[in-house]
What does this fold into?
Amino acid sequence: MYAVIRAGGKQYRVAPGDVVRVETVEGPDGKVAFSDILAVSNEEGQVSKPGSNAHVIGQVVEQGRGSKVLVFHYKRKKQYKKIAGHRQPFTAVRITEISANGKTFTAPELPKKEPKLKKVKAKAHETHKAEAKAETKAKPSAKKKAAPPKSAAKKSAHKKK
It folds into this structure.
């Protein structure tokens, strides 16, 4: 099943489980409801207008800003150039439920992500650093000798050529 919704002046074709980037929206507890539904499809090839009780519910996944779009103004033969950048804010929404004409379709639950074990690697890295530091302290450091100064005879020989 899919639905066509309107959000932020644009139209999106969404299905349960889809992640859509829409104009910035906010909802209580990270839930967003889209009530402006233009079309609904229950089966392949079956598209209909939804009733007044149709709705699409989503879960906010991410809030962010899109990639930079350069706006470049230029007038030829007039030495006029102007450049400006723009990053459009967006909200990534995962569609969790579509309800229309008495039927409800829900997205499958996402598996819980287990936290990564970064602490174990960090401790191993620290021990390796400590061992390397101990090795450098154990070895006597050899100081570099300064280069001997050039003799005056060599300098004058260069100038004569």
